[in-house]
């Protein structure tokens, strides 16, 4: 059986949601992060989630690979689009933007200690990170203007992944309702999905 390694509240939530949308027999394994005892190290040498182990035992890492791989397990679910189509490219465009720009922008916000040992310097790194994140979320809001979902008016893996970073906004002290009203309804739609509720409950248990 395909196995998907996830951690509570991590970026693996997008793959977790996508996998639950498919309703396929996939085993979810919750692991702790950043501890040498975590079983994730036996599967992924980088110790990161998401990590997927296919039916045939092949290990796949990186959201950019796992999200489309999951969608392609059941094309009729419409979580991606056929290879070579414009929609497929737009879904990949979102995944690339979220993976590099948005996830990257959270690094100085969540872990400023990676950039400098001095706590005062860390504070300003975090503040600069929050300002940069706000700018990028403004772009997301503009891209979603007048749309129900990111691509093709249906929920795709781009949305499964985007929702993760909107759910993280309070960590940066960003209140979506007052600062990004255009995204609040999107996040409500995301949070209302059965897949999202089930993934959140599994991770919290
Ligand atoms: N580029 C990777 C990043 C994955 C990643 O950084 N995952 C975090 C959770 S959000 C993690 O596992 N961190 C543990 C660590 O860095 O030790 C991807 O998009 O899959």
From TrEMBL:
Upper lineage: Bacteria, Pseudomonadati, Pseudomonadota, Betaproteobacteria, Rhodocyclales
Domain of life: Bacteria
GST N-terminal domain segment(s): 1-78
Name of the protein in question: Glutathione binding-like protein
Pfam families associated with the record: GST_C (PF00043), GST_N_2 (PF13409)
Gene3D superfamilies: 1.20.1050.10, Glutaredoxin (3.40.30.10)
Residue span(s) of domain GST C-terminal: 84-205
Entries under InterPro entries matching the protein: Glutathione-S-Trfase_C-like (IPR010987), Glutathione-S-Trfase_C_sf (IPR036282), Glutathione_S-Trfase (IPR040079), Glutathione_S-Trfase_N (IPR004045), GST_C (IPR004046), Thioredoxin-like_sf (IPR036249)
CDD domains: GST_C_Beta (cd03188), GST_N_Beta (cd03057)
């Amino acid at each position: 059986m395909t196995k998907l390694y996830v951690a509570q509240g991590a970026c693996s939530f997008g793959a977790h949601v996508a996998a639950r949308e498919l309703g396929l027999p996939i085993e979810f394994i919750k692991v702790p992060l950043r501890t040498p005892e975590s079983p994730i190290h036996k599967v992924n040498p980088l110790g990161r989630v998401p990590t997927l182990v296919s039916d045939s035992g092949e290990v796949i890492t990186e959201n950019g690979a796992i999200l489309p791989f999951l969608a392609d397990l059941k094309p009729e679910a419409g979580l991606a689009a056929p290879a070579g189509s414009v929609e497929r490219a737009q879904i990949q465009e979102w995944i690339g933007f979220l993976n590099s720009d948005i996830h990257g922008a959270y690094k100085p916000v969540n872990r400023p200690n990676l950039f400098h040992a001095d706590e005062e310097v860390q504070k300003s790194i975090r503040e600069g990170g929050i300002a940069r994140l706000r700018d990028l979320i403004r772009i997301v809001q503009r891209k979603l203007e007048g749309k129900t979902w990111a691509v093709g008016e249906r929920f795709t893996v781009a949305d499964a992944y985007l929702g993760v970073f909107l759910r993280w906004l309070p960590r940066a002290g960003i209140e979506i309702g007052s600062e990004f009203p255009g995204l609040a309804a999107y996040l409500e739609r995301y949070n209302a999905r059965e897949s999202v509720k089930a993934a959140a409950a599994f991770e919290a248990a």
